[in-house]
Amino acid sequence: MTAFVRNQWYVAAYAREVGREPLGRTLLDEPILLYRTEDGRPVALSDRCVHRRYPLSQAPSRLVGDRIQCGYHGFTYGTDGVCTYVPGQQRIPRTARLTAYPVVEQDSFVWVWIGDGEPGGLLPPRAPWLDSPEYTVVSGMEPIDCDYGLLVDNLLDLSHETYLHGGYIGTPEVAETPITTTVDEEAGVVHVSRHMDDAECPPFYANSTGIQGRITRWQDIEYHAPCLYLLHSRVAPVGSPPPNADGTDPHAFHVEVVYAITPSTGRHTYDFWAVARDFALDDREVTEFLHKNNHTVVMQDVDALNVLQKALDTEKPGYQELSINIDTGGLAARRLLARMAR
Amino acid sequence: MTAFVRNQWYVAAYAREVGREPLGRTLLDEPILLYRTEDGRPVALSDRCVHRRYPLSQAPSRLVGDRIQCGYHGFTYGTDGVCTYVPGQQRIPRTARLTAYPVVEQDSFVWVWIGDGEPGGLLPPRAPWLDSPEYTVVSGMEPIDCDYGLLVDNLLDLSHETYLHGGYIGTPEVAETPITTTVDEEAGVVHVSRHMDDAECPPFYANSTGIQGRITRWQDIEYHAPCLYLLHSRVAPVGSPPPNADGTDPHAFHVEVVYAITPSTGRHTYDFWAVARDFALDDREVTEFLHKNNHTVVMQDVDALNVLQKALDTEKPGYQELSINIDTGGLAARRLLARMAR
Amino acid sequence: MTAFVRNQWYVAAYAREVGREPLGRTLLDEPILLYRTEDGRPVALSDRCVHRRYPLSQAPSRLVGDRIQCGYHGFTYGTDGVCTYVPGQQRIPRTARLTAYPVVEQDSFVWVWIGDGEPGGLLPPRAPWLDSPEYTVVSGMEPIDCDYGLLVDNLLDLSHETYLHGGYIGTPEVAETPITTTVDEEAGVVHVSRHMDDAECPPFYANSTGIQGRITRWQDIEYHAPCLYLLHSRVAPVGSPPPNADGTDPHAFHVEVVYAITPSTGRHTYDFWAVARDFALDDREVTEFLHKNNHTVVMQDVDALNVLQKALDTEKPGYQELSINIDTGGLAARRLLARMAR
């Protein structure tokens, strides 16, 4: 099992998922209750009543104003986790208090700090495209019955697009083109780049951009361990001018593919996925196409990782993997996660 | 896990469930076969054939007269558990014998003695309302996927009626009114009383008694550990006379709520429930209403305890509960069960 | 759990099941991929890609000519298990190689050698009736959620036909008639014979042979441990002449009942069953009747063994069985398997 990295920000939900209905999620084996106050502030508390451990996210537990009331015996807690009511007596025990988790709402996500103590000045990494007016976004979340390390492996090695996602985002060039991998140990970021100069244009891009013919296709991954994965994808017809020196790039199409990889338990993972594009912003057909196409791609990964986890569950201890050049990104990520977990 | 208390009587089934079809139940991890002889006597035997351990309650096992014939190879046993037939030979091994359990049919239940040796003169505790002509009864059984201790906790602390059973049997006064708890260590009985002088009348009582307006509501629990739970419930309009000195109580409505709590395995429990009333005896609408209403209440408990058990299954060792005044009954019951289990 | 016997041939599939779609089976805890080359040769390889352990039998893994391509990252292997392609680089690691299992196609089965090293000259045992023009065959395979030892027990002791298969193949005489058991330790074969001189004719034989009235019924079992079970069944009207000295037997009906018992995991077993007859060869009604009837019989065993395994799973360690004369065949098989496993 891939060790959990504590003292980090994790995506617990999309902002749109957190409202006036209690929502329960398990992050790094910790059960967490999410809801929003009447004035719109997200709250994250331990999802177990201190009395008999009933989940506060489970009906008939419910919000009473900004407080959460346990559905079993009525213990009630404020947004700071402090108990404000117990049944049958006036005195409230001093120890009746839920863990209140630091929360940040940013880039369409609700981030929760999992760790001992406070994040201090540390903020979650950014994915600004997800709520920028200059991008149109499709997104979703799929739970996977696997160790989160399998999803990290999957996303760091995109050669699998050719085989698992052929006919969607994969073409022969993805598997054929060598990658360059660098690791920023201090920042905790793995970079993997694959630049294809002359490649087939897969349906995902052909149908959304309207490009006919072959493309230049760049895949630049930034994995901010442990939770945030960014894939800067640049697509342009072969022969288009490169980006300008000032960073502008008017002749290419850009897609920012974002994954938040949140370990739930040792074999359950939340796979938050989003695709932000800087073209055809108001074209609903393109939006619907990309939503459906990328959901299909995500489900191909989900199915494969569910199968893979079950296969690994039956392996004898000490089984072997064989790694090659395409795995340098994934192996770098594993090393980084192992170091951060210590 | 709450330790099992052996050398006790347990309810294995309602009398009406035991007939000429073999019935299998597991009590305290012991698989038990129940059936009734041709002249109506209930029988309880070990539910495993001595030959290859096939369950005698499973088709095509079947009764042949008063004997049970294994559906796999035909080993046949009498009501005393002694084997009377084996295939392919005349000689029957002397050790071919099932455990025969002491059985008592009483108060609409089939009670089985689980323990070493015989019960001697010890009889099961009584719930005489359940087959008395002076009461009308609705009843049922629901299996719960939980430690039986969770059901004991649930029933000993009725403050949960206000939250889990609001709109059925709960009103604010149940959670608000303090309880008195006493324990008869010798008899193995926990008493918990809550007398509400001026309380809302919940739908359960309003619709069955016809009372309009507020009520005096008494809840007097007798928990005969480990299996039998009695709730003597007295309801009368506020201002009605109290019971007479001779015990008669003509101005009040009485409901005897009976639960038999039978541990099946460490995380499965049989929840036998019954509601006996001394009013509207022949009113079928009231009977149907109480059956449906109480079944709903029981299912609210079942759902909550299934959820709670799953939550507890993921707790780290050494997790904490916080107990308050309402828990004195439940904690007394836990101590009593622990003592009896030793 | 019954110990696995390695260094043996096991039936992995019917020949008809192995084709140009990858087929995954687990034998003795080893995941195995089966397919057929373009020129019809069956292939058995380890069913885990050496790279990240993805199952090669799982879509989108697929055959490319005679090679199997992993559906995750495209690693490709020849029929000898040697890797011929990896993504992103020309050099193929020398250790990239799947285990290739010895395979024999014989008597309608695909046999796979599970063990260390090669079978040498050792060939699988024979069941020649299954692809002989002198017999008509019905067959199928059912997985059972049980230790394979339970299926061996079942088949070696046919007294269960009377009870579990009454109305199909069982009659009172099967349970009543004593057996003779012999063991050929060197060949690893257990023989169990039961000759009934004057028995009811069960529907299985009455409807297929047309015999009316009582029969002579011989059951001669050869269990070639660990995998192949043969039941030579001879049925004739009472009073018919015995077989001739030269082995011919024109006055009787012969059915060769074949089971291949292949352990999958410690509690999953493949139950390959076949019924070959030497009469009514072209009668489709008889074929359909025997297929349906025997499938029902097999499912009665499957249901009973699933029930039995679940019952055994809850037994306390050191539970007892009681064996009698009918068990001599099963006990001999257990001893033989235990010796072979060592």
From TrEMBL, chains A, B, C:
A GO biological-process term: methylation
Pfam families: Rieske, VanA_C
Keyword Transit peptide: no
Entry EC number(s): 1.14.13.82
Keywords: 2Fe-2S, Iron, Iron-sulfur, Metal-binding, Methyltransferase, Monooxygenase, Oxidoreductase, Transferase
Domain Rieske, residue spans: 9-112
PROSITE patterns in UniProt: RIESKE
Xref: InterPro entries: Cholesterol_7-desaturase, Rieske_2Fe-2S, Rieske_2Fe-2S_sf, VanA_C_cat
Protein name (database record): Vanillate O-demethylase monooxygenase subunit
Organism: Actinomadura namibiensis
Origin organism lineage: Bacteria, Bacillati, Actinomycetota, Actinomycetes, Streptosporangiales
